[in-house]
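Hey,

The postdoc asked me to send both predictions to you directly instead of through the lab channel. I've kept everything plain text so nothing gets mangled by the mail client. Protein one:
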Amino acid sequence: MDSTPLIPLDAFRQGAYACFTRAAAALFEVVDALLTEERARSFVELSQAPGFQRQWPSLYAALRDGQIDRDALRRLMVGRLPRPAPGDRLVLGVDTSPIHRPEAHTAADRTLVYSPNLPAGSIPVRPGWSFSTVAVLPDPPSSWTSLLDNARVPSTGTATTVGAAQLATRVPLVPVRPLLLGDGHDGSTAWVVATGGLACDQLLRTKRDRVLYRPAPPRTGNRGAPKKDGARFKGSDPTTHDTPDAVWTGTDAAGHACTVTAWCGLHLKSCRDVPLTVLRVTRAGAVGTARDPRESWFWWLGGEMPPLATIPPLYARRFGLEHGDRFDKQALLWEAPRLRTPERF
């Protein structure tokens, strides 16, 4: 990122305060307390922060009674985006993060959300709420992501429908064409159908057994409908790969051999008008686990693809979302308030 001056802090604070349309003073003191008190690990402790000059019940009163103009807040956040340096891209990420509420039996619209670190053999889900976040990802990856939007995934929706709706409203506000990095659930037919028309390039991680198709062969002149799809391509079936369109071989950041292979001009049956490039990244020094695989598969859709050598370090920036979520939950106490409704939360 370059050193383009951002909105002055006082102007940004005034803009944020203007987005609070009810209980503004109490809400703003909550924000200041979260930003200045590092030792607090509960809402009661947060009420003792120097930045919070009210009594501790005002913390919950602020979140219970407060109202926020979310559209105005989104515009404010877009207006202070870091500008990429010449030759760099504005890189976005979208992902969901769970808020567990297993004992809140009266909480509205709980769903089963992912829960790590449960005992072996347990189903890794617990009751709670899931939230979808769109953020600008820093380089190198860190918790200092720039949030653009945060929305709950209701029981009537999915991470795909909510994430696609967020991007549809946020991308037009971004001053430059962004690049989105998507995880496994984004590398699906439903996601491509929902987001293929956005003014946004995408690098999506996908499964190796996804089936795509090459362009349809020329018409034969025989009777009957012409073929709409060409030969199949399936990552897990090497007999369908044919000759790749491009290959790069080099070393990764640790000095181990790394190969990126590309097959261009593919498509999905349900959205033939969205051309896809399939990428396979093979890393000899990887452990071979789910978090550090030796072989990873991606889809590229959008404009001109970056050089193959930049694909592995580019996708690594997506881990900034995980760092950002951890900072929100641990330092900013995102999970701490026990509010009755998901709207108040």
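Protein two:
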Amino acid sequence: YDHLLALPAGLPPGTYTVLLRVLDPELQPLTASSGGVDVVLGQTAVRAGQDAGQLPAFSAQRERFGPVTLLGYNLPDSAARPGHALLLMLYWQVQRTPPAEYQLRVRLLDPAGVILAESLTTPTRPDYLPTQWQPGDLLQGQAALLVPGRAAQEPHQVEIALLNPANGRPVGNPVILEQPVQIEPWPLETMFPTIASPLSADFGRPPLIELAGYDLAQDAGQMFLTLFWRSVAEAIPDNYRVFVHLVDGAGNIVTQADGFPVQGTRPPAGWRSREAIVDTHLVPLPPDLPAGNYTLYIGLYDPETGVRLPITIAGEEQPDGQLLLQMVSHE
């Protein structure tokens, strides 16, 4: 059975892996015999395209940055949410090979021009350096901006610049993209409902987030753990993930849950100062889990580095960056 896979112009040159995924009628992936949902079919080499007519649809905005021209960009049509990444796609055309390894700087500006977020990355695929670019090449690049919690419900602007790493100065002038970005803040809650198990613990040094307590319920082979978080900083710099570990007497993790708070919808970088977050995690219990007593731990960690936030209770640091909530009896 033959499939034609059309490669868009602008795809950065390099080696790509071709994967196969089969979906059922409800568009859920089927598990392959290897145990995963993707099957590696092979690899293919891609060369730079030079036919602008074969580029994907984009918002045209022609701007010159020294030896490179911006043809246009794509921004999401929907409003951006605090704590989520705003994805920007850029389309470049090379006039002549750049003399240095330019970097792409992208900024999110509020209506007063204040910088709310900034990203510094490569203009296109990291292993296709600007000094390798050839005249006429069409290149696609992307960048992500983390929308902070203090972003208000009003149109914002995106500024881009190419920087010369030798001096950090822009190549040409920074450019404001013509399409505004609308921010849609989350409803602000500052009060908690009744908490079954109050507990005061600080995460971060100095504290960024406070745990005010938790609720724990068990039903039909699973636990429901609700955590009550409060942001205690003016801004949380990164999106930390929550881990929940159920540990046996030998220190082995018998089951766990992991993810951003509120089923992934409320990453901490989008929290506002004093905001109250009610965050429920489903923790499955293995059907063959032996009866006995287990220990329930939680923590927050940086998904980029795996480093856990330090935890203190009344000024006393908790070991291993994890907080013991309670013993759990399983029958």
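Summary for protein two, as requested: The chain has no helices and 22 strands.

Thanks,
C.
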